[in-house]
Amino acid sequence: MDLGRKRRVATQLLKQHAGSQVLALPDAEPAIVKQILNYFVRNRNAADSLEGVARWRLLEEQIQRSLQQTEAALKWLVAKGYLQEIKPAGSVHLFRLAQDRQAKALKFLQEQNKAPRKKRVR
């Protein structure tokens, strides 16, 4: 069974059991139920403990959060001119230091190290 079919089956199962006690439990969030079920549908031979499932879920969440935070930081650095975004044809975007802004980048880092902790740079 291909991955697309597995996901459709998992979604169908969730819809069929949407009114069941599993999804009606106050502590069972439907998105988490779906995420876990999708994992086991995609990996039919998988078996894991509560702690194991929690670990891979947390890892996936951390990676997603880190990707979002990193993307925001890279966009800010490009917008401010500290980094250059390179877009090779047929490849992922790359980032590098803007050579003409190296001195300003060093000054920015020194200022940030001296300044009291701020929530976000602007």
Tell me the helix content: 55-70%
> What amount of the residues lies in strands?
5-15%
Q: Reading side by side through the largest sheet, how are the strands ordered?
A: 1-2
> Could you state the order of secondary-structure elements as H and E?
HHHHEEH
Q: Note the overall shape.
A: elongated
Could you name the ranges where pLDDT drops below 50 across 5 or more consecutive residues?
Answer: none
Class by alpha and beta content: mainly alpha
Distance between the termini: 49 Å
- Tally the beta strands: 2
> The biggest beta sheet, please?
2 strands, antiparallel
Task: Quickly describe the structure.
The protein is mainly α. It contains 5 helices and 2 strands, in the order H-H-H-H-E-E-H.
How is this structure best described in words?
It is a single chain. This protein has a two-stranded antiparallel ribbon with strand order 1-2. By secondary structure, it is mostly helical. The chain has five helices and two strands; from the N terminus they run ααααββα. α1 (3-16) runs antiparallel to α3. It is elongated, with a radius of gyration of 22 Å. The longest helix has 30 residues, at 50-79. It has helices at 3-16, 21-24, 30-42, 50-79, 102-114; strands spanning 83-86, 94-97. It is 61% helix and 7% strand. It has a domain at 69-122.
